[in-house]
Design brief:
The complex is a heterodimer. By secondary structure, chain A is α/β, with parallel strands linked by helices. Helices cover about 45% and strands about 15% of the residues of chain A. The interface of A and B includes residues 141, 205 and 266 of A.
Chain lengths: ~375, ~200
Amino acid sequence: MQFGIFTVGDITRDPVAGTTISEHQRIKNTVEIAKKAEEVGLDVFATGEHHNPPFMSSSPTTTLAHIGAQTEKLLLTTSTTLITTNDPVRLAEDYATLQHLVDGRMDLMLGRGNTAPVYPWFGYDGSKAVELTIEHYQLLRRLWDEDVVSWEGKFRTALQSFTATPRPLDGVAPFVWHGSIRTPEVAELAAYYGDGYFANNIFWPKEHYIRLINFYRQRYAHYGHGQPHQAIVGLGGQFFMRKNSQDAVNEFRPYFDNAPVYGHGPSMEDFTEQTPLTVGSPQQFIEKTLTFADFFGDYQRQLFLVDHAGLPQKIVLEQLDMLGEVLPTLRAEFDARRPTDVPDAPTHAARVAARDAALAAPVGEQVTA
Amino acid sequence: MTTRRIVVVSAGVSDASSSTLLAGQIASAITRADAAVSIETVELRPLAHDVIDASITGFASPRLQHVHDLVSQADGLVVVSPVYKASYTGLFKAFFDAIDQDVLVGKTVLLGATGGTARHSLALDFAMRPLFAYLQAVVVPTGVFASPHDWGSAGAGALESRVERAVGEMVSLLGGSGSGRSASDDIDLFSETMLSISDPRRD
């Protein structure tokens, strides 16, 4: 089980201090947050990709390469990389370059992640979002898996004997997660290719996601990658912790009440009751997080949103310290409940080993990675 | 014959609301016309905060979800709103905005509205009826509008007869096969888009 954090890179006014951070400082802070994540023992750091204010996260591979140069173990990924509006050729090359720079210590999560006005900025039609997702991903897959690609599709110019460079590290493409909160086609895409499926469940009740994840698990098995409970699932989460739960409630409330997504809506009490958000003590956080596996099955990656809603950097770093303190308990509890035939989250080393094992296997015998 | 389930949704906001009064009158007429019908009444006023929260968060609170479930399991609906500014109220619209897209497909819906003057009566046909046409409900031909005049003794007979006519139509529609359509949220694995995933090089 991997634990990590994901950021959307929002620049939100701090409702308590009444100040708004600069883009420059927010970008620098993001690097500091990632380094802190490694320091407290987390496995994964993910950044979002947005191309409009109030976000600053338009260039994930630049940011991740910079972080990669200053960390040693942290796995770097995205939440999400826009498969709709990025050219698959650029994606293949940018992420393969990142893969080399960080010695395989990366993967990526693809998503549509766009509102309608964003598509034309990149030359695409937003009403074709699902079709774009499918065509772009099928091309990206080929650009990584085949050295020379001739291709023709609906949404970009054809390719004749094209080779995307650099080739993936060790001949094994970055592992791909598909992020989706409502589209069954994306779950199907993840299942068909045996990729991971990430359900960012932080804003909605579990029932909706149980249905989507179960669909992905069934289709994953249908396509012969393993049993439904062996499919590769990632989940989101959200918390604000203080030793004393009432302190957490008092301190976080103004940030909750003014948060971009759910602010000025339901009470914090209702929202914590109905979604994965925990505002309380470390013990409350542990108990709630452990219920995720009861609802969605044993899974491979848990990412938390920590730096958002205008929280000052100092508080974000304190929250990461607290997350680091409960991490050994979370790891032990999740490991204890997980059946031995549920796989770990894929890493580059494991995927290279699986590929080599498949190549070494006698002819006629299939080994699936 | 199985019991048919009707949910009455009233968007009246004042206490002693004329919309709720009209909803009750329609509900009694349904019970008189068809004893095999079970009726459940939902007042939107106590759910107002939940409805607005759902429009912000995109999901229903447990008690609003309970009402959504009642609606989705019903065979027919009676919906009653006050008319404000020439249309149904924002609360009434927000309630149907927050409910799943396909929930009303093929369901029989009887429209009712109340207003401060009879001149608002066309809100039934120019505002409410298009909303439920969009939701693909089977809308009962006769809608029932009650103005202050109707609650007075002189006009009571006329209101009562309109209620009787609308209810008669509703019971008749419920006894038939409706539109023959039903909501289905099954994922279509054989849609063109789905098939294109497992066969990347198809034309």
